[in-house]
Amino acid sequence: MAQPAARATARRSPTVDELAVWRDYVETSEAVRRTLAAGLQSSSGISPGDYSVMLALSEAPDRELRSSALADLCGWERSRLSHHLRRMEERDLVARRQAGDDARSAIVALTDVGARIFRSSSAAHLRLVREVFVDALTPEQLEAVRTTTAALHRHLDARAAAAAPETSTD
Amino acid sequence: MAQPAARATARRSPTVDELAVWRDYVETSEAVRRTLAAGLQSSSGISPGDYSVMLALSEAPDRELRSSALADLCGWERSRLSHHLRRMEERDLVARRQAGDDARSAIVALTDVGARIFRSSSAAHLRLVREVFVDALTPEQLEAVRTTTAALHRHLDARAAAAAPETSTD
DNA sequence: CCGAATTGGTTGACGTGTCAATCATCAGTC
DNA sequence: GACTGATGATTGACACGTCAACCAATTCGG
């Protein structure tokens, strides 16, 4: 009892109601992700990670990219990409070779096998995105998802920027 | 221009615009999840999975539950829970023992250590939920998240029900 | 030109999550 | 009371993701 001097701080816990929205948001986004992953797996035997990599490569000139460029396009850490590429290379989906201009750098190329599998997976995957995500929402709701997602995204970025002063303009 | 005879099917791929919302939704929800996981890890040394399990146990009578009940509360598969409990047991966060009435069943109890850690993690975690999620959104946006999430959730459930006829009333 | 710091990328260890297989127990049937 | 099938839970194998350590090539300061 006796609210302990709340309200002034604005740093208090969420209400029960807010917490319920939070929980549902987390659970649902994970369920959606799992559904798409399962679809990709069963229709083409690849993972969402595989798909991201192959999508980026398939849109690149000569179907190849520097490892660092690929990491940026996927929004992945280098280490994660490196591990993933090793697994994909073992399955002959991609090939790695050295870059000519910088001996440190690696070039990742989509193999013919990889390109074929990507093409054959793409249509079904996109249909599933529509079926599970787009079709679940009215146009207004889709618009609402866009704006709320953007708000969350911006907020996270601002938070990250605040935490990492780095190249401050001084 | 020249829409390729779309609209009639409703089973076509998402538009570029819809796809952009989808991508942002996936990326952002993962970024949010990662942020919360990192916060929990650094403040209390536990994972979101640990937190879910301890939350459910802490609210249960005698701070213990049957394994199956715990799995239901967390919304996890049995196998996942079993693996997770083994790891938590090694860290003395929970303890497992046999149930009296059904020799197959296992009872999971929150240890004193686990209860203490959970209590000390809870406030910071909830504050972070507010900071990262609730505070990022206006009240209207929070409401929009609620309704869109509910729509996605319902749609997924309907889809799952359609795929699994099981106990149909025949 | 030499050495230090930086950059591009890989690796190992480890926690996590899924699937399929397994195992013991329980419930129902004859 | 043994045979059958469902149920509660565990296990092993393997993909995935993160962190920290590492290595080699490069860049920069002197």
* Gross morphology of chain A: globular
The fraction of residues assigned to DSSP E strands of chain A is 5-15%
Oligomer: homodimer
Largest sheet of chain A: 3 strands, antiparallel
Report strand order across the widest sheet of chain A: 1-3-2
User: Would you list the SSEs of chain A in sequence order as H and E?
Assistant: HHEHHEEHH
Give start-end ranges of low-pLDDT stretches of chain A.
Answer: 166-170
- Which percent range fits the helix content of chain A? 55-70%
Please give the domain count of chain A. Answer: 1
CATH fold category name of chain A: Arc Repressor Mutant, subunit A
At the first level of CATH, the class of chain A is Mainly Alpha
Report Rg of chain A.
Answer: 21 Å
What is the CATH H-level superfamily of chain A?
Winged helix-like DNA-binding domain superfamily/Winged helix DNA-binding domain
Mean pLDDT score of chain A, rounded?
A: 90
Provide the CATH architecture of chain A.
Orthogonal Bundle
Q: State the separation between the terminal residues of chain A, measured CA to CA.
A: 49 Å
The largest chain-to-chain contact, stated as pair and per-chain residue counts, equals: A-B, 49 and 50 residues
Beta strand count of chain A: 3
How many helices of chain A does DSSP assign?
A: 6
Domain HTH marR-type (chains A, B): 18-154
InterPro entries (chains A, B): HTH_MarR-typ (IPR000835), MarR/SlyA-like (IPR039422), WH-like_DNA-bd_sf (IPR036388), WH_DNA-bd_sf (IPR036390)
Protein name (chains A, B): HTH marR-type domain-containing protein
Organism (chains A, B): Agrococcus versicolor
